[in-house]
Amino acid sequence: MTHPFRKRSRPPVLPDDSLSYSVLQASELVAQVGEGRNLTECYEAMLAAHAGWADGVRGAVRDLAWVSLRDYGRQDPVLRHYLRKPLPLRVEAMLRIALSRLERRPDEAYKIVDQAVAAVGAIAPGLKGVANGVLRASEREKAYCAALRAADPVATHRHPLWWIERLRAAYPERWEAVLSAGNQRPPMSLRINPRRTERESVERRLRESKHGFRTLDNGALLLDLPCAATALPGFAEGWISVQDSGAQWAAHWLDLADGQRVLDACAAPGGKAAHLLETADVDLLALEIDPTRARRIQANLERLGLDARVCVADARNERDWWDGRPFERILADVPCSASGVVRRHPDIKWHRRAEDIAHFARQAAQILESLWRTLAPGGKMLFVTCSVFDDENGKQIERFCKRHEDAERVPLDGRLDRQLLPDAEQDGFYYALLRKRE
Fold first, then answer.
1. Most CB contacts within 10 A, which of 128, 167, 353, 378?
2. By residue range, what is the domain housing residue 211?
3. CB within 8 A of 219, min separation 6: which ones?
């Protein structure tokens, strides 16, 4: 006689140094992004919950999640073809991770399929057969899957269709290169802190520790290979900071001088604020609306031995934070779509909608109006976004200048403004410098 209560088998415990374990954990991040959550915040929460993870585990989980999300749209036609009904979001995420890895590492196909199926079995044993069938079929029918992807522009370019079309219209000769850059691993650049060291010392220590690099036009050091910041010589001592080379133009183009009163609006996490203080002896106020992010500004400044007033406030309401004394320089690094940094934050391109661009442009316009009132006659304001969409950039400045007769545009190294597009050296940024007529 069969016992009426059968003992359920427990899901297998996966070794934390296995690919299956990394797939299991990374799938949680991918699934959370699918639910609309912020990837970086989810990853930080995961690290806090797994404080004992070795560096290798942290790196493997992060790599699988980030790469899969850069490839997110690429797997849609394959999943639509092989699945007859939707899977739980977590299991679907595991398939996305596995399909992405199969394309990138075809010589490891057996291991990838085996480990991905094991990861599915850890949370949904009844779906192991489905996962195994999809992955093995995609391997058997590689050419057919390649054709499915090639016929789908979202799968081909790994960006939403509205995004692709907008870039094609804006950059008819470079749109494919911009999209391709958004799918790659980002470069890693360093900024030297002259308050604590000299360039020669940093370069010597990098060479001694076998970190290859080259110096870019703005003084940024572009590493040959990215690495953990804490592994860099001089990082703990505050000699260097990790900052994209495109972002390092801000301090150069703001035209700083000792003794100036300077405002950095929307300052978190503090990289540009620190660079301003490293460049000149200025009286700096750093604004940030988010208290948690404001604390990161302070932490960055302390590591580098720098000092500024950090204020938690909304830049649009100057009455809440301005004492009435005008600023001689303002860095207006305004909120935007972040379309120029999607390779660092791949969840962005799947969370954004076409209508969001107009929303960010309106928000930035409100901030500019408030900041302009605090700028001294003869003072300069550098407008910055990490966007590649002109509605947030050049068109924003054109609209602002039409509203303000006292605003004149100041060229940046001989150009009226600068749109930096993401490439092998830098992320995407837009810069425009305005001077308030006296």
1. 167
2. 188-243
3. 191, 192, 199, 248
